[in-house]
Amino acid sequence: MLDQSIKSLLVCPPQRIARFFFTLTMKENTNTVLLGNHLVLVPYAAKHVPKYHEWMSDADLRDLTASEPLSLEEEYEMQKTWQKDEDKLTFIILSRHPKDGLPILDGHTPGIHISPEDPRVSSLQMVGDVNLFFKGDRLAVAHETTANEDDEFEVEIEIMIAEKRFRRKGFALESLLLLLTYAAGQWSPFVPPDLEGFDSIPSHLPLRPYLNYIREAQSSRSLIKIVTPSRLVSRISDSNEPSIRLFEKLGFRVVKQVEVFHEVEMRWCEAPRSS
Ligand SMILES: CC(C)(COP(=O)(O)OP(=O)(O)OC[C@H]1O[C@@H](n2cnc3c(N)ncnc32)[C@H](O)[C@@H]1OP(=O)(O)O)[C@@H](O)C(=O)NCCC(=O)NCCS
């Protein structure tokens, strides 16, 4: 299979060759576990589909996430597509607990690698998902050539804490910080001034060492080249106050109202933040 692809490259234009090598590096989250203070991010796999499908049978959640109802079979198909598609980076959020046996990072932790199949990980409860979607001419960005204006590259972020009892505990904020640190190779643009709030949650150590570990040991070269803060965008229903406040906290601002879809577009902005 690979041999055939390489053979076909010999007769390919340079753009296609670039796409081939870029494709090879895009699904690099396949074996990635991002360890956090309260949660762990793992790639969306077939074993997660039944719970995901149960979540998406809730009409309110579908509404909030602009999702279509799917049968279980369609959900499995969708998961397969998401797993392969180079334009998506999808993670499931699992809740940690004090006796999960996973490392607690304190800033002095030597190299760790945790597999998504590790029983300490697979036994954790699913609480939601967090995703990046790459839209537009990624090749132009990766190769620093000028993109067609209609095909400007952007990275759309989506998050859902589906399990209601896990909301308002900092899960969404922490998930987004882990994912953005992994994909953008930095966390400082997104950390709210009141990050110290994480320290006040009993029985958990602060998030900072986890973000540092991801930045230093796990962020991927091909992603950080294209996922820069100014290319991040979130599209949210204009009545979804919790989500708008959440993205504001990470430094995003409403830059556009799309009346026809009752939606706001939020982009990360360098302007100073209040909290
Ligand atoms: C929006 C959502 C992801 C927030 O998840 P969460 O884990 O409860 O959020 P966090 O606890 O991390 O909250 C972080 C910040 O977001 C804001 N926020 C979250 N929920 C809020 C609410 N109900 N009302 C107002 N602000 C809220 C606050 O600024 C909060 O910081 P604070 O607790 O210091 O005030 C969650 O409510 C959800 O999944 N909703 C359904 C799906 C959805 O709307 N997804 C977004 C589509 S892009």
From TrEMBL:
<comment type="similarity">
    <text>Belongs to the acetyltransferase family. GNAT subfamily.</text>
</comment>
<dbReference type="GO" id="GO:0008080">
    <property type="term" value="F:N-acetyltransferase activity"/>
</dbReference>
<protein>
    <recommendedName>
        <fullName>N-acetyltransferase domain-containing protein</fullName>
    </recommendedName>
</protein>
<dbReference type="Pfam" id="PF13302">
    <property type="entry name" value="Acetyltransf_3"/>
</dbReference>
<dbReference type="InterPro" id="IPR000182">
    <property type="entry name" value="GNAT_dom"/>
</dbReference>
<keyword id="KW-0808">Transferase</keyword>
<dbReference type="InterPro" id="IPR016181">
    <property type="entry name" value="Acyl_CoA_acyltransferase"/>
</dbReference>
<keyword id="KW-0012">Acyltransferase</keyword>
<feature type="domain" description="N-acetyltransferase">
    <location>
        <begin position="39"/>
        <end position="253"/>
    </location>
</feature>
<dbReference type="InterPro" id="IPR039135">
    <property type="entry name" value="NAT9-like"/>
</dbReference>
